[in-house]
């Protein structure tokens, strides 16, 4: 049996960060993962350029049943700390929108940085390792049985992620370990995920597939202003992904397709100055023609402005300002960027990520019930929670 100070299960963002920090403290660390390569989600993130953090990290950008839990880790290892690490490795990056930071080149730059830091800290990474059984022998004594032999460790850190993108190796492993040790797990669901539409809406809007529009999307809880994207399955784009984390089945969302314009005033002005113009012609100055064709009632689309009543113009403007649609559901974990829910934060120390009642056991990263917004927030939670655990394991 191989004896170690720390075993980290999961070679993703949180696990690698934890390994780096524990290794710096001269702890004997091994990271185990069932995949053939580390950091697969890091590599595919941000369209292959890794949206590794955000300038505007704030606890309010996170969803949890315990909204205060993330504050400690985020305040002690900040976005500026990770940016300093990126700069240390001379990785060039840029801000895309809304504080989102991306590599200038490839996501591999971030993964190589983490692996290099692990090597420098003496932390070993072993892939193709399937965990068969975990036993708690006593406080700070755990036995791990795997297809590559047995291990003993004082600190066991679960960094196995959530259920999003199963093709990348996602599994419920972390939740099963929690349940094995009697730790509460909040129900999970897909977050930051496209919507599918009701059959009649899908048929109606499929003609708009590929069109993106700067919009405001809101429900009773929250509002987001970014692009929406019509797809052949439904609705996607940053604003849709954001609102999906705050959406419950059966709810409607409201979309303003022209958040910068007062369309009703504009239509009335056009009516006075260009009374012979057709309504669809005027609206095509503000929205893509295909969108206008779908949203306008054919009976009014080709009418001249002079013949359209104020009330009818108000109805047209309302359709554009407050398009209300009830999604049929989401695309699920297959395309979700994150998993909502997970390990109950009340069972953990917000300072160390340790399980309160089981000395030596820790949960970090996406497995925990902390989910960030789109735009680098979830990576920052991985860095911060992994760092916090790494100071004590």
Tally of individual helices: 14
Strand residue percentage? 25-35%
Class from helix and strand fractions: alpha+beta
Largest sheet report = 7 strands, mixed
Low-confidence stretches: none
Sum up the overall morphology in one term. elongated
> Could you tell me the mean pLDDT?
97
- For the record, give the distance between the C-alpha atoms at the N and C termini, rounded to a whole number: 20 Å
In oligomeric terms, what are we looking at?
Answer: single chain
Could you explain the architecture of this structure?
This protein is about 30% helix and about 25% strand. It has helices at about 15-25, 40-45, 70-75, 80-90, 110-120, 175-180, 200-205, 240-245, 265-275, 280-285, 290-295, 300, 310-320, 375-390, and strands spanning about 1-10, 30, 50-55, 60-65, 95, 100-105, 125, 130-140, 140-145, 150-160, 185-190, 195, 210-220, 225-230, 235, 255, 325, 330, 340-345, 360-365, 370. Strands 1, 2, 7, 8, 9, 10 and 20 form a seven-stranded mixed sheet that branches. A seven-stranded antiparallel sheet has the order 17-16-13-14-15-12-18. α1 packs parallel to α5 (about 110-120), α1 (about 15-25) runs parallel beside α14 (about 375-390) and α9 packs antiparallel against α13. It is elongated and about 85 Å long. By secondary structure, it is an alpha+beta fold. It is built from 14 helices and 21 strands.
């Amino acid at each position: 049996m191989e004896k170690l100070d720390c075993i980290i299960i999961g070679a993703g963002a949180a696990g690698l960060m934890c390994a780096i920090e524990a290794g710096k403290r001269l702890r004997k660390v091994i990271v185990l993962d069932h995949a053939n390569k580390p950091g697969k989600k890091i590599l595919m993130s941000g369209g292959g350029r890794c949206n590794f953090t955000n300038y505007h990290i704030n606890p309010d950008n996170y969803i949890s049943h315990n909204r205060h839990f993330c504050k400690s880790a985020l305040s002690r290892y900040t976005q500026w700390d990770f940016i300093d690490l990126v700069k240390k490795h001379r990785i060039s990056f840029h801000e895309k929108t809304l504080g989102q930071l991306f590599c200038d080149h490839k996501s591999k730059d971030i993964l190589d940085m983490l692996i290099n830091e692990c090597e420098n800290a003496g932390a070993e990474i072993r892939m193709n390792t399937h965990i068969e059984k975990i036993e708690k022998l006593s406080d700070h004594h755990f036995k791990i049985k795997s297809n590559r032999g047995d291990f003993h460790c004082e600190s066991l850190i679960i960094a196995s992620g959530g259920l999003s993108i199963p093709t990348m190796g996602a599994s419920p492993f972390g939740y099963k370990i929690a349940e094995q040790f009697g730790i509460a797990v909040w129900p999970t669901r897909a977050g930051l995920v496209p919507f599918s539409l009701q059959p009649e809406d899908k048929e109606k809007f499929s003609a708009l597939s590929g069109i993106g529009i700067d919009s405001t999307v809101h429900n009773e809880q929250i509002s987001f202003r970014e692009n929406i994207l019509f797809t052949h399955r439904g609705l996607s784009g940053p604003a849709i992904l954001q609102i999906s984390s705050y959406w419950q089945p059966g709810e409607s969302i409201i979309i303003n397709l022209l958040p910068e314009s007062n369309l009703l005033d504009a239509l009335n002005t056009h009516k006075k100055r260009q009374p012979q113009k057709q309504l669809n012609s005027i609206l095509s100055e503000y929205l893509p023609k295909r969108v206008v064709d779908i949203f306008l009632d054919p009976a009014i689309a080709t009418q001249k402005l002079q013949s359209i009543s104020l009330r009818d113009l108000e109805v047209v403007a309302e359709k554009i300002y407050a398009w209300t649609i009830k999604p049929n559901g989401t695309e699920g974990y297959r395309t979700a960027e994150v998993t909502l829910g997970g390990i109950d934060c009340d069972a953990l120390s917000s300072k160390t990520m340790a399980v309160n009642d089981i000395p030596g056991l820790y949960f970090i990263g996406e497995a925990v019930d902390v989910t960030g917004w789109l735009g680098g927030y979830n990576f920052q939670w991985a860095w911060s929670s992994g760092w916090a655990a790494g100071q004590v394991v």
